[in-house]
Write a sequence for this structure.
């Protein structure tokens, strides 16, 4: 899969992998990737494009967990 220069730069700056469709990440993989994204959120400056990418990807990866928890109530 080819990445654009902006995507490659974004991946390089955040130190986390680019995920084309975060909603399709398996729960086991999401758990491991979430650790990487949380680590990056602690060092990135809030409001930057890199921070937004890490935050939004983390949210999208874990939407299945949110739906599961909400469905139990």
């Amino acid at each position: 899969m080819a990445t654009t220069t902006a995507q490659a730069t974004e991946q390089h700056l955040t130190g986390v992998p680019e995920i084309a469709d975060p909603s399709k990440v398996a729960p086991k993989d999401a758990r491991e990737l979430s650790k990487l994204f949380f680590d990056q959120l602690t060092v990135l400056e809030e409001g930057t494009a890199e921070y937004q990418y890490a935050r939004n990807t983390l949210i999208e990866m874990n939407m299945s967990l949110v739906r599961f928890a909400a469905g139990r109530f």
User: Anything to note?
Assistant: The helical segments are 5-14, 27-43, 49-61, 63-71.
